[in-house]
Write a structure and sequence with these properties.
The chain has one helix and eight strands; from the N terminus they run H-E-E-E-E-E-E-E-E. The radius of gyration is 22 Å and the shape is elongated. The chain is about 5% helix and about 40% strand.
């Protein structure tokens, strides 16, 4: 492989750090410390859900052709700096920065939602099954 081709391949997939975010546009600026602290601006987040990464997190980026200015931020990843919230392959977990999480236990089909604040459901709410409460139950407009 020629030296030019090797440089091209090394620039296609790069690891950098989130330097700033534009939450409204869904883009990030990425700092590449190994490229003399070069910052690439306005890389779109490649995501199927809205989850803006934190500044300082490592991120994997994919660039188009030989132009490091055109590409995508594929997202952040787990590392020695950013650890996974659980260590169990039988659990799907969405962790939020305030401690709230949604967890699905694949082996028992149990869904757990733990919120650091009161949980609000907007719209109609139907329950087909029993309701078990371990705390106080308050209601308004019952029977109206």
């Amino acid at each position: 492989m020629s030296n030019e081709a090797l440089v091209l391949v090394r620039n296609l997939i790069r690891v950098g750090k989130i330097n700033s975010v534009n939450a409204a546009a869904g883009t990030v600026d990425i700092l590449f410390e190994d490229k003399d602290n070069q910052i690439i601006s306005d890389l779109p987040l490649m995501a199927s859900e809205y989850d803006i990464p934190k500044i300082g997190q490592q991120a994997l980026c994919l660039f188009l052709g030989n132009d490091i200015e055109q590409g995508f931020c594929l997202k952040t990843f787990y590392s020695d700096v950013h650890h996974p919230p659980v260590a169990n392959e039988k659990i799907y977990r969405k962790q939020f920065s305030d401690g709230t999480f949604i967890e699905y236990k694949k082996d028992s089909s149990e869904l757990i939602i733990q919120s650091s604040k009161p949980l609000t459901v907007k719209g109609d709410f139907n329950v087909e099954g029993n309701i078990v409460a371990t705390g106080t139950v308050r209601a308004s407009n019952i029977g109206s």
